[in-house]
Specification:
This protein is an alpha/beta fold. The protein has two domains: about 100 residues, no CATH class; about 120 residues, Rossmann fold (3-Layer(aba) Sandwich). It contains ten helices and eleven strands. The strands form two sheets. It has a seven-stranded mixed β-sheet, sandwiched between helices. It has a four-stranded antiparallel β-sheet with strand order 3-2-1-4. Helix 9 links the parallel strand 9 and strand 10. Helix 6 packs across helix 7. The chain is globular.
């Protein structure tokens, strides 16, 4: 998967003659307030400290990626493209950089997370989108996004899996949160899959490229989704 992403990204850079060695990329970890503003609800993974948004900046354009392994980084495009992607931190740097560069080139939009009331509005739009495109499907969600579960659970038959042990086995908005081991069964059961783009950073995304309609949500996968031809839902990203 990452070999394809790097090859396609490298082709874009070569065509645009960006100059790999001399271009500097700065990536840093955002605070929850920087990442999501001040929403009324405080149950997002960012607030729980389980994940952070890393933000890369390229010539004034910003790209972000969720990760559970975060820190700061500065280097050239060449260093990032050639980086050994051995952990979530390194993959987050590459993904955030792809988002920033592709945003600068005008190849993708919405590479910065929405804030304040954005997640609520996003979830409402997601319900409308699914109804319009799929009718009344059974939805398998991978990665708990509280506002989405809250909105979808009122309208559809939904099953959710998550990696966070604090969520597993508990009901959220009337929906039981299953362990990751249940994901395969949920995908067989569903009509459509709704998968967090963070699966790209934790390198589990390959398991979710099924024959069934799959929608990857969030800013993390904005640029890579364009490179891979994947459906990406993130209407309120900036």
């Amino acid at each position: 998967m990452y070999n394809i992403i790097r090859d396609k990204f490298s082709e874009i850079i070569e065509k645009r003659v960006l100059g790999l060695e001399e271009v500097s990329i700065a990536a840093r970890t955002l605070t929850p307030e920087e990442a999501i503003g001040n929403p009324e609800e405080r149950d997002y993974p960012l607030h729980k400290g389980k994940e952070r948004l890393m933000e890369a900046e390229f010539k004034g354009s910003k790209g972000q990626a969720f990760t559970d392994m975060f820190g700061n980084f500065k280097g050239s495009l060449a260093q990032i493209i050639e980086m050994d992607l051995s952990n979530n931190f390194r993959r987050a740097i590459l993904v955030a950089t792809i988002n920033a560069v592709m945003r600068h080139l005008g190849l993708v939009e919405r590479t910065v997370h929405c804030k304040d009331k954005g997640p609520v509005i996003c979830s409402q739009e997601l319900v409308s989108y699914i109804k319009k495109e799929f009718g009344n499907p059974r939805v398998a969600m991978v990665g708990l996004q509280p506002r989405m579960v809250e909105a979808l659970g009122r309208e559809f038959d939904i099953r959710v899996t998550d990696l966070d042990e604090e969520n597993i086995g508990k009901q959220k908005f009337g929906v039981m949160i299953d362990p990751p081991e249940q994901t395969e069964a949920n995908l067989k059961w569903c009509d459509i899959a709704l998968v967090t783009g963070t699966t790209l950073v934790n390198d589990t995304i390959g398991a979710f490229r099924t024959a069934k309609p799959t929608i990857f949500f969030g800013v993390t996968i904005a640029g890579p989704a364009r490179l891979l031809g994947l459906a990406n839902f993130c209407p309120c990203g900036m």
